[in-house]
Amino acid sequence: MGPNKAVVLVGYKTVKEALVDFAHEFGERATRRTAKEDQQEYGVLFTNGETWREMRRFALTNLRDFGMGKKASEDKIIEECGHLLQRIKSFRVREEISRVIGARQVQVEDRKNLPFTDAVIHETQRLGNILPLSVLHRTSCDIIFKGHFIKKGTTVYTVLASVLYDENEWEKPHSFYPAHFLDQDGKFVKRDAFMPFSAGRRACPGEALARMELFIIFVTLMQHFRFTPPPGVTEEELDLTPQVGGTRCPSPHQLCATSLF
Ligand code: HEM
Question: So what family is this one in (predicted)?
Fold first, then answer.
C-alpha cells in the first residue's frame, strides 16, 4: 500500500489462524505513528503496548455490565428503539415475535425463544458486512506464516468480507438466507465463520453491547411497525446498493413505517 508492504489475509481458515493461533504475532494495530508516539496516544482502537492493554482492560471491565443484560443499560437501549429501520422479509419474524412475546416489552432473555428472529439478525449482519476490511493490524515480530516470511511491523489486512462470504463455509454466501443459522428443527446454530466483530486479541470489545442493541431495537421495531417501500415504489425498485468507504452502509433511501397499533 503506497510505499509500505502489506499482507492481505483472505478466507475463514487463514484469517482465523492468524487472529487466533498467532494472536500475539498479528495482534498489533497498524498506525502511522512511531512506537514512542503510540505510547502517548490514548484510547483502545489505535494504540499498542501497555497503553492499549490498560485501556482495553478498562473498556472490557466497564462494557461487561452491558453485555450481561444489566437492567439499567438494557432500559436505556429500549428507550432509544424508535430510530432504526430495516428492510427484510418480515412476515415470519413478526409471526414468531407475536407468538412468543406478544406486545410486551422484549427482554434479552427472550432471544433463546426467538431462533428465527435471531437467525435473521445474524444473517443481516453477515450479509451487511459493515467493516469489510476490519481495522488494520500489524505484525508485532518477524514471523513465518503459512511458509511466508513476514517482517515485524508489516501492515496486515484481515479481510472480514472474505470470511463472511467464504464459499467454503456458507451454503448461499451471497444471498440473504437465515437458514445459515438454523438447524433442521429450526433451532439457532452458531457458525464459526460468523466473524463481523473479528476474533482474537483485538476482537471488538463492544460485541456484547452491540448484539444486545441489535436484538432489542430490531424486535421492538418489528413489534410496532410494518415496513414497506414508499407509495408507488416496489420492493425491487428500492435501491439498497451499499455505500462503500472504510465502512459499508446502505445508501439513504425512503421507507414507510406503518404503526401496527
Ligand atoms: C455492529 C456493531 C459493531 C461491529 C460490527 C464492530 C466491529 C469491530 C471490528 C471488526 C473491530 C476490529 C477488530 C480487529 O482489529 O481485529 C472492532 C474494534 C473495536 N470496537 Fe467494535 N464493532 C461494533 C460495535 C462496537 C461498539 C458498540 C463498541 C463500544 C461500545 C465498539 C468498540 C470497539 C473498540 C474499542 C475496538 C478496538 C479494539 C482494540 O483495538 O483492541 N465496537 N469492532
Answer: Belongs to the cytochrome P450 family.
